Amino acid sequence: MARGYWVAFADISDPEGYKAYIAENAKAFRKYGGRFLTRGGKYEAPEGKPRSRTVVIEFPTYTAALECYRSPEYAKALALREGKSVMDLSIVEGYEGPQPTNQ
Predict the structure, then answer these.
(1) Residue 88's pLDDT is what?
(2) Does any domain span residue 80?
(3) Which of 24, 29, 83, 87 could form a disulfide with 10 if both were Cys (CB 3.0 to 4.6 A apart)?
(4) What is the gyration radius of the CA atoms in the chain, in angstroms?
(5) How far lies 91's CA from each of 3, 65, 74, 78, 100, in Å?
(6) d(CA 30, CA 41)
(7) pLDDT score, position 102
(8) Number of folded domains in the chain?
């Protein structure tokens, strides 16, 4: 079964207020098996106009990724994020097909 991923691009306007969102979202991520693959850090943007922060969270399944976003635990975190950041978020299913090195 394919893993699920949250791919988010965010600009944080209130770093101090955003800390409450981080503390609260951990509850949902823990419950649904979320694991950070990237959480900010250095980046280059050779194409497009990304936001200042890139986050990728891996979940055991695509269904778990969707359920986490729709959960009451994440809804509580999301309310804490309002007015403190702007985010573009996609929830995607992992790819399990052939890779260039396998062809």
Answers:
(1) 96
(2) yes
(3) 87
(4) 15
(5) 11, 7, 14, 15, 24
(6) 22
(7) 57
(8) 1
Domain that holds residue 73: 4-96
The dihedral through the CA atoms of 21, 70, 73, 5 has a sign that is negative
The helix (H) or strand (E) run that includes residue 23 is helix 15-31
Q: CB atoms < 10 A from the CB of 14, how many?
A: 13
pTM, two decimal places: 0.91
Q: What is the CATH number of the domain that holds 30?
A: 3.30.70.100
User: Which two tokens mark 20?
Assistant: 């409450």
Residues of the chain with pLDDT below 70 are: 102-103
- pLDDT tens across 25-44, in order? 999 999 999 999 999 889 99
Q: Is residue 102 part of a domain?
A: no
